[in-house]
Amino acid sequence: MLKNELPRIVTKQIPGPKAAKWIARRGEAVPSAIKCVYPIVIARGEGAMLEDVDGNYFLDWVGGVGVLNIGYSRPELIEAVKKQSERYFHGMFNIVTHEGYVALAEKLNAIAPVKGTKRKTYFANSGAEADENAVKIAKAFTKRPNIIVFSGAFHGRTMLTMAMTSKKAYAYGMGPFPDGVYRAEFPYLYRKLEGIPETEAISYYIKSIEQVFEQASPAEFVAAIVVEPLQGEGGFVPAPIEWVKAVRKICDKYGILLVADEVQSGFCRTGRMFASDYWKDADAQPDIVTTAKSIAGGIPLSAITAREEIMEAVPCGVIGGTFCGNPLACASALQVIEIMEKENFEARAVEIEKKVMKRYQKMQKKLPVIGDVRGIGAMIGLEIVKDQESKQPNPTLVSEVVQECIQNGLIIENAGIYGNVIRFLAPLVITDEQLEAGLDILEAAIRRCM
């Protein structure tokens, strides 16, 4: 079975002849702005593996950028979606109630680590929609106009979320953007300012938020502070728990809602169902959690969860949408969560973390181009530099390593504000043998390219 195979390239090069034809057709039919650096045309996928149209086998460490925590083509998901499709494909929730939407909302209300005992959830289609809706309900509840986001943040490509996103390569030429979005510094400890001791770094980054209150928006006009528990596009940078606790105190002091953007970090990726479960352990729960990506195993769906008093502050008609909470997506999501809980995907993410971190740390000692190794659970970043002393980013080397890995059957992706971080987002169903094979391919690729 494909899900148990190892990487194998049977064509002389990638892309093979069949894939090359499809990529040429793509170039004629699809805008080039939808960039793809991977010369791969998928034919089928199982587990953590995919086969292209030429019969090459690839190990996927990107997983649809965090969508496939449960892997490709899980039979139970196929059956759940098929069963639902035989009843009805669509039922707009503003028009008719369907059981899957209600059951999934009940499940997320039970497991999401947000403040409050009585929670409510509603659904959208993408991570960007979830984040934008979180801002909507924060404004409705607080009656305030502004939000605070962070350096390195990625929240989406709608007009509001482009404004929220730090890296403006994702928004080039798209302004003007909505007002009321202000930015503080995220605690990127590997690249903290020189001269700041580690013990004082958290205080420095908290002062950055306080400076927003002074220089941009007084605290009494801030509706929400939106945080990724572990930045994705920003370079797989974890939010230190001590910093999160301090942000929670700021929010409590000024009546600001704390929003955890778990679009990429949710659904067992970090060794817990949600990364903000770690916040809960530290008594720093968010007020709102947004989720998407792996929630439905590949069918478009996102969710917004908060306590009842926040949700009920939203005026009628302000939230909802035609495809939000589609029955097929809800059926798949319910099955995803059931499998993850039954098979203890949280523990598997921790096992993967131990294996990958151990290998990465060994590589770091041998390879001077590896500057930092960081992450939570099976969401791990490898920061590539020109040398460990200067920490100068080396995005060129990362681009070369990505292409070298592809030619040897491993799909990896870059991240980071400089494009110099290799991200690990492999499906959590990856086998130990596949994991070792991927680590061997990556290490060999770095050695050849450096």
UniProtKB/TrEMBL annotation:
Its name, as the record gives it, is: Aspartate aminotransferase family protein
Instruction: List the taxonomic lineage.
Output: Bacteria, Bacillati, Bacillota, Clostridia, Lachnospirales
Q: Give the protein family.
A: Belongs to the class-III pyridoxal-phosphate-dependent aminotransferase family.
Query: What organism is listed for this UniProt entry?
Result: Suilimivivens aceti
- InterPro entries reported for this sequence: Aminotrans_3, Aminotrans_3_PPA_site, Class-III_PLP-dep_AT, PyrdxlP-dep_Trfase, PyrdxlP-dep_Trfase_major, PyrdxlP-dep_Trfase_small
Instruction: Give yes or no: UniProt keyword Chloroplast.
Output: no
| UniProt keyword annotations, A-Z | Aminotransferase, Pyridoxal phosphate, Transferase
- Report if keyword Ribonucleoprotein is assigned: no
Report the SUPFAM superfamilies cross-referenced here.
PLP-dependent transferases (SSF53383)
Q: Which PROSITE patterns match?
A: AA_TRANSFER_CLASS_3
Provide the leader sequence positions: none
One family from Pfam that matches here is Aminotran_3
Q: Where are the transmembrane segments?
A: none
Which cofactor(s) are needed, names only? pyridoxal 5'-phosphate
A molecular function annotated in GO for this UniProt entry is: transaminase activity
